[in-house]
Amino acid sequence: MKFFLDTANIEEIKKANDMGIICGVTTNPSLIAKSGRPVEEVVKEIADIVDGPISGEVDAFTLDSEGMIKEGRVIASWHKNMVVKLPTTQEGLKACRVLTSEGIKTNLTLIFSTSQALLAAKAGATYVSPFVGRLDDISTHGVALVEEIAEIFDYYGIESEIIAASIRSSMHVIECAKAGAHIATVPYKIIEQMLKHPLTDEGIKKFQNDSLK
Ligand code: G3P
Atom 4 of ligand 1 has which residue's CA nearest to it? Predict the structure, then answer.
């Protein structure tokens, strides 16, 4: 499974990239707003740091396919690695079809059902993003959605890659890996959780103490 970082925080992206563990970045309007900078400026800076797919989302107020297509073409022009993130709606699917036919990569986001994932794949989505944590929030098993999508994509040889998104814990990452997600996009704090083990820290201390004797 590949890891993307789900953030627009440049320092976190640099730290994860330096460790050699991420091969892409996803952003969304909430994450861009947190950065307090214009989307184009942030996303271009990210693309200069990470040599892999960088998802930039269309404006949250753009709900028609014409607008999404127009914005998607601009986003795609920012860098060769740009992926246009679109909402999984009727208009989003229409925009996906057109952008895909122009060779532009897309990430269909806000996926909460297997049927949405199947339709996104049909429309030509490069990536589909089921939101695991937000389903858990409403007492629905988010990982089960990833598992079902992965099983069906595998059965039919569907090429769209599954990005497990809305990841809230390191256990989510492991469960999504077991469920067959191609990618997990994670906040930086999840990378820290995945890396940290008290026995590793204790072991380093013991080696240091023994070296001094
Ligand atoms: O990739 C989607 C992600 O940013 C949403 O995460 O924690 O806001 O549900 P969350």
Answer: 166
